[in-house]
Design a protein that fits this description.
By secondary structure, the protein is α+β, with helices and mostly antiparallel strands. It is built from eleven helices and 15 strands. The strands form two sheets. Strands 1, 2, 3, 4, 5, 6, 7 and 15 form an eight-stranded mixed sheet that branches. A seven-stranded mixed sheet has the order 9-10-11-12-13-8-14. Strand 11 and strand 12 form a beta hairpin.
């Protein structure tokens, strides 16, 4: 197994393997992996007809963890290779974002070897596209009212592109100041991910749009195709003082870019109370659990054993998050 830095050159073969075994999780699309790669110092490896990504994380976290492998090949030899790698490096074996089907499969292939747990904070919110477009029925009454108020003024929707991206960048700076983006690692990582999404928007095959109110950008969003039936929204921001901007950009993105898809994945809430409340208010069709996987027999390996593990250097010049 050879680990290497994730680059845009990897997109064609990664997309090919993702198409061989589509997942509903937002973790299984190239764009999501790429825009966050500096924050987690990601490395990618191809093992047969599967691939995985090693997330190194920041100081203070539990240590490296592999994305549950995706691709067309059998999973058992891939897991065995990852187990061998962790033993050679002297680090705990950890997988994340394993789907429910993987729990059954790994339990069958490696009986008694693993523990599994699902963290509610990392559950994906998946919605029916028709629900987000039509906002029909009593449960969406408030959303319709907010959108109606927003549209009472001079407003416009524009597809996101080179001609208006500078305006979105400027709005993002206003949003960050209003939202209290701090100098902490988490705040810097998010700003880095947003900037990478802007910078490589076309190369990543993203879709997006913005809202103007009286000529000023007040909201923008972007996402990509997750699988043949699902779109995923990676970034959505609106100025908090503009009433109705959030539900309007949400609805317009769904109506203009997602009509050919049955579902829209709007990612996790990360345990943020306000974000969880907002995502639940749109009544997800699926709350998708994602499982962490650990070896049961690693009691003798300290959680801090990975502190001596060699993280990759920051070799990418456009990483802005550190």
């Amino acid at each position: 197994m050879k680990l290497k830095e994730l680059t845009l050159a990897d997109k064609p073969w990664v997309d090919e393997l993702l198409a061989a075994r589509p997942y509903l999780s937002c973790d299984y699309c190239f764009g999501n992996l790429f825009i966050w790669k500096c924050a987690f110092r990601e490395q990618i490896a191809r093992i047969g007809d599967c691939f995985t990504v090693l997330f190194h994380g920041d100081e203070g976290e539990e240590g490296p963890a592999f994305l549950y492998p995706a691709g067309a090949g059998p999973i058992k030899p891939v897991i065995e290779e990852l187990l061998d790698h962790c033993e050679r490096e002297g680090i705990p074996f950890r997988l994340h974002s394993a789907p429910e089907t993987a729990v059954e499969e790994l339990s069958r292939l490696f009986p008694g070897l693993f523990d599994f747990d699902a963290d509610r904070d990392y559950t994906d919110y998946i919605y029916r596209t028709e629900d987000l477009v039509n906002l029909a029925g009593k449960r969406y009454h408030g959303k319709r009212n907010h959108i109606a108020r927003f549209k009472e003024g001079d407003w416009a929707f524009e597809p996101l592109g080179a001609e208006n991206m500078a305006d979105c960048r400027a709005m993002n700076e206003l949003w960050c100041r209003a939202s209290g983006c701090g100098p902490d690692a988490e705040g810097r990582a998010e700003q880095c991910a947003v900037e990478r999404a802007f910078r490589y928007y076309d190369e990543l095959g993203f879709f997006g749009g913005l809202l103007r109110r009286e000529g000023r950008v007040v909201a923008f969003t972007m996402g990509e195709r997750l699988n043949p039936d699902t779109m995923v929204v990676h970034i959505e921001k609106a100025l908090p003082e503009v009433q109705g901007a959030y539900p309007t950009i949400n609805r317009e993105f769904a109506a203009r870019f997602c009509q050919g898809y049955s579902y829209i994945n709007r990612e996790e809430d990360l345990g943020i109370e306000g974000l969880r409340k907002a995502k639940l208010s749109y009544h997800p069709a699926i709350l998708l659990p994602k499982y962490g996987v650990r070896r049961k027999d690693e009691a003798g390996i300290s959680k801090n054993a990975s502190q001596g593990y060699s993280r990759p250097a920051e070799s990418v010049g456009d990483c802005l998050c550190r």
